[in-house]
Amino acid sequence: MTRATQPMHPATTTRPDDVPLLAMRGIDKSFPGVRALREVDLTLHAGEVLALVGENGAGKSTLIKVLSGAHLPDAGSIHIHGQPAAIGNPIDAQRAGVAVIYQEFNLVPSLSARENIFLGQERTRAGFLRHRDEHRRAAALFERVGVPVDPDAPCRTLTIAQQQVVEIAKALSLDARIIVMDEPSATLTGQEVARLFAVIRDLRAQGIGVVYISHRLDEVFEIADRVMVMRDGEHIATRPIAEIDRNGLIERMVGRKVENEFPKQHAPIGKERLVVRNLSRGEKVRDVSFGVKRGEVLAMTGLVGAGRTETARLIFGADRPDAGTVELDGRRLDVRSPRDAIRNGICLLTEDRKAQGLVLGLSVRENFALPNLGQWSRMGFVIHRREREVLGRYVQSLDIKIPHQDQLARNLSGGNQQKVVLAKWLASNSEVVIFDEPTRGIDVGAKYEIYLLINELAAQGKAIVMISSELPEVLGMSDRILVMHEGRITGEITDVAAATQEQIMNLAVG
Q1: What is the C-alpha to C-alpha distance for residues 142 and 125, in angstroms, rounded to an integer?
Q2: CB of 345 within 8 A of CB of 316?
Q3: pLDDT computed for residue 395 by the predictor
Q4: Which of 137, 201, 288, 497 has the fewest other C-beta atoms within 10 Å?
Q5: Options 1.10.760.10, 3.40.50.300, 3.40.50.2000, 3.30.2000.10; which CATH number does 19-97+177-259 get?
C-alpha cells in the first residue's frame, strides 16, 4: 500500500534550535497495578499540528490528562514557551494556555453558544451580566474561527460540527496557545471534517499549536505536520509526516508488521439468508429491499443521515416499520422487538456500543449474560458456573483482554468493549450479524482483529451486514456494497475489487 498523498503544509517553526511551544519531558504515571506512562517526551512547536497516535491503552489519554491537569505525573516536567509550568489542576492548565476539546463535548445544552463560551469567566457591570459585550466577543471569535454560528442559539439546537466550533471558540476565549483535539472527527460528516481541517489550518496560521488525536490515519496524513507514536505507555517515535508511510506508521503503532490492513478472505457464498422487502419508516427509510447470502459480507454505506442505522434498527425490531417484511432462510419473521429478533437469530452490534451495546456499570460477565440468561437458568436461577465457563471460551477465542470476568465494562478499551458485545451475540447463536460502524473509535490493531472475526463469521455461513462510513473499510472488507441516500438505496456495487471511493460518493450524494 502506498503512502497517502501528502498535502502541502505551510512552514512550521520546527527547527532544532527553536524553543518549543510545549515540551513534556520524562513523564511517568502509574496507577494501582499499571504503569501507564514510562518517561514519555512530547514536543510541540508554535503553528504546528502534531498527530498523537497509538492503540487503545497506549497512554495517549493519560498523557493528555497530565497536560490538562486532570492527573498529576509521578515524574517529569512540563515547559511552555521554555518556562517551567506547574500544572496541578485544570485551572492551572487553562492559565498556562492549554485547552482540551474532548470527543464528548463539555457544553451545557440548554445554554446558548455565547453563554457556554464565557461560562465561568462572565463579566458584569453593577452586578449584571454584559450580554451585549459577550455577544460581540462571541461573534468575533466565530469570525476568527471562520464558521458562522449564532451566539444566542441554544447549544442543543446546533449541529455536532457547530458545537465543536463553540468548543474551539471557548478555547480561544481563554487565550489558549495549545489546543488538544481528541478524536474530533468521530461524529462528523465528510464535509464537516473538511471544514474542521480548514479551521485547524487557520489556527496553525495564527501560531497556535494543535495536538490532534485520531485513529483515522487518512486524516493524520492530511492534516498533521509531524506524528508521534505511543505504544504500551512509551514514546516510540516522532517523525515528520512526509518521512513515514501508512504501513510504517501502523507497524510502529502495533509493534509488528501488518502485511494487509484489510485481511479480507472470501468465504463460499451460498443461498440468500436474510431478505428485506419494501421496508419503510417515515422519511428515514423508504422502500428498502435487499438480500444477504450465506457467507457474504454486505456493506451498507452513505452519508450521515442516509438511513443505514434506521434500516438496521427496523430489522432488529428496535423500531416498528410502517411497511415491509423481513425473512430469514425463506421464513417470514414477525419481529416486534429486539427480543423477537434475538430469538430468531438476528443480532445488532450498535453504532454506540457504550450507550446501546453495553451496560457500562455492569461487569463483563453480566453484560455477556444479558441476552443469554435463558440458556444458563434453571427454575429461575442462573447457573453461574456455566455462564463463566462459556464466557471463558469466548475470552480466549476472541482474545478479550481483561484481568477477570468481573471487570467493569466501562474500564475496557474500545476494542475490547466491541469484542464483549460480539461475544454475547455469538453465544446467542445468531445467524445474521449486523455491525453498525464496527471499528469506530478503535485502533488499527483492534480493527485488524475485528476484521478477522468478520472473516470467521462469514466462513461459518453467517450472513453479515456491515454498516460503515469508512470507505477504505467498505472497499477492503465487503463482497458487495449497497449505497443509501435520504432513506433509499441509490446503488449497488457487485464488483468491489474494481470499485473506487469516488464511485461510492457519487451514489451517496444522490
Answers
A1: 24
A2: no
A3: 87
A4: 497
A5: 3.40.50.300
Maximum mean pLDDT: which of 250-254, 382-386, 473-477: 473-477
Under 8 Å between Cβ of 124 and 130: yes
411: which 3 cell numbers? 474500564
Residues 25, 461: Cα–Cα separation, whole Å: 52
- 467: confidence class by pLDDT, cuts 50, 70, 90: very high
Maximum C-alpha span of the chain: 77
Tell the CATH topology of 272-508: Rossmann fold (3.40.50)
The reported pTM is: 0.66
Q: What is the pLDDT of residue 11?
A: 39
Alpha helices (runs of H) in 71-159, residue ranges in sequence order: 90-95, 113-117, 131-145
Cβ count near 272 (within 10 Å): 17
Buried b (16+ CB within 10 A) or exposed e, 32-64: eeeebbbebebbbbbbbbbbbbbbbbbbbbbbb
Q: For the chain, first and last CA: distance in Å?
A: 30
| Contact of 434 with 315, CB cutoff 8 Å | yes
Angle CA(362)–CA(412)–CA(408) in degrees, nearest 5? 20
What are the extents of the domains in the chain?
Answer: 19-97+177-259, 107-176, 272-508
Q: Are 70 and 90 in contact (CB under 8 A)?
A: yes
Kindly list the distances between the CA atom of residue 403 and the CA atoms of 219, 250, 369, in Å, as whole numbers in the listed order. Answer: 34, 26, 18
**DSSP letter string, 337-395:** SHHHHHHTTEEEE-S-IIIII--TTSBHHHHHHGGGGGGGEETTEE-HHHHHHHHHHHH
Amino acid at 379: M
What 3 state SS string does 18-83 have?
A: CCCCEEEEEEEEEECCEEEEEEEEEEECCCCEEEEECCCCCCHHHHHHHHHCCCCCCEEEEEECCE
Q: How confident is the model at residue 130 (pLDDT cuts 50, 70, 90)?
A: low
